[in-house]
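Table S2 (text version). Query chain:
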Amino acid sequence: MSSTDSTGIGTFTVRPLDPLKDAGLLHRWVTHPKAAFWMMQDAKLQDVEREYMRIAAHEHHHAHLGLHDGEPAFLMERYDPRYVELTGLYDPEPGDVGMHFLVAPTDRPVHGFTRAVITAVMEELFADPATRRVVVEPDVGNKAVHALNEAVGFVPEREIDKPEKRALLSFCTREQFEAARGVSV
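Corresponding structure-token output:
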């Protein structure tokens, strides 16, 4: 588990997701109207349990529950794009890591919170020295996440067709992330 308070909003930690214990919480998050791009709006609790059991059993896909000051606040998925999500859709490079994140819905939004979450997620991914570049494939219509991705250093490469969506393939190197944060390389 890692923790960070580089955002000024609090301490973020991540722990491995427990598909059965955390399913109820995740179900509330992924079926919320603000999670439309997660494509699980009509999922039943059992569907969420099944999906995260599948991820837990997968050698190249991992889910983590993100905590803000000790309270569940976001979901982070890390995957190897050679085997999951992007297989055959681009030419992976050594050190590529795929990422998804979902911030929990709230009735009391905190200005800058989602940007702090994506920053914490990127710090977590780049804490692994083997990670050279983070790869994302958000829906082309998800303008809010495109802006967040750009804010932390992602550069769009091209649109791609996935079975479930048209996606914007984007990349962020360690250097681009550090430059976006104003950190000297």
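Notes on Table S2: DSSP finds five helices and eight strands in the chain. The first strand starts at residue 3 and ends at 4.
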